[in-house]
Recover the amino acids of this structure.
């Protein structure tokens, strides 16, 4: 079984302190066999990481739509932010991507979903994220898991790591896979290993965003 991390960010995201090189080092140290890099609204960091370690990295993206964030794996072309969920999903389907929904019930973070908007896209997605290690209240994850079970949806879990020490907080144990279709089959046999991160990790994200903003102002 592979130890798989499905939701991780690099310094190509404005609020991450993690370079692709440091991310890969953390994965090797923690025994992560496969990692999906899901930077916000870009695949540049994922492509960089894939060039460094093509056998370990899957290119993904976390996409901000007009209703909430989507989480996509096996992405070939970046999807811009600001599209309707339906338009973003259609573009991802054209690429053959696997589509999940990021931290759907986290009301404390930008990117959460209203239930009516989520219900509208359920026939169009493959899964929802049922555990996100960065959710500050466990109730948000419990609500996502209950929702997935009620609607017979598969669930993904992820650390949502923006720092090296978060990598591996939420992983799947999965059979081998090589594309979106085989991942879909493997996920049906998944075992999850999850731990919540400290709420203090959000301070790291704010610091990273401040550093990038300050650096841009001095260019």
């Amino acid at each position: 079984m592979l130890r798989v991390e499905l939701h991780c960010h690099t310094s190509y995201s404005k609020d991450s302190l993690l370079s692709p090189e440091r991310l890969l080092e953390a994965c090797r140290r923690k025994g992560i066999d496969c990692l999906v890099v899901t930077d916000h609204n870009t695949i540049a960091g994922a492509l960089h990481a894939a060039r460094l370690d093509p056998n370990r990295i899957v290119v993904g993206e976390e996409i901000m739509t007009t209703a909430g964030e989507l989480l996509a794996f096996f992405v070939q072309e970046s999807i811009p932010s600001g599209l309707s969920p339906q338009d973003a999903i259609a573009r991802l389907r054209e690429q053959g991507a696997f589509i999940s929904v990021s931290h759907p019930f986290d009301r404390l973070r930008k990117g959460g979903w209203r239930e009516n908007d989520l219900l509208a896209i359920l026939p169009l997605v493959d899964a929802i994220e049922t555990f996100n290690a960065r959710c500050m209240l466990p109730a948000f994850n419990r609500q996502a898991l209950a929702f997935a079970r009620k609607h017979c949806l598969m669930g993904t879990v992820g650390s949502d790591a923006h720092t090296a020490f978060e990598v591996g907080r939420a992983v799947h144990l999965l059979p081998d896979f090589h594309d979106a279709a085989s991942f879909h089959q493997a996920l049906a046999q998944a075992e999850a290993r999850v731990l919540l991160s400290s709420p203090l990790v959000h301070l790291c994200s704010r610091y990273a965003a401040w550093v990038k903003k300050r650096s841009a102002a001095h260019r």
In short: The beta strands are 2-8, 34-37, 57-64, 69-73, 98-101, 127-132, 154-158, 170-174, 191-194. The chain has seven helices and nine strands. The two ends are 47 Å apart (CA to CA).
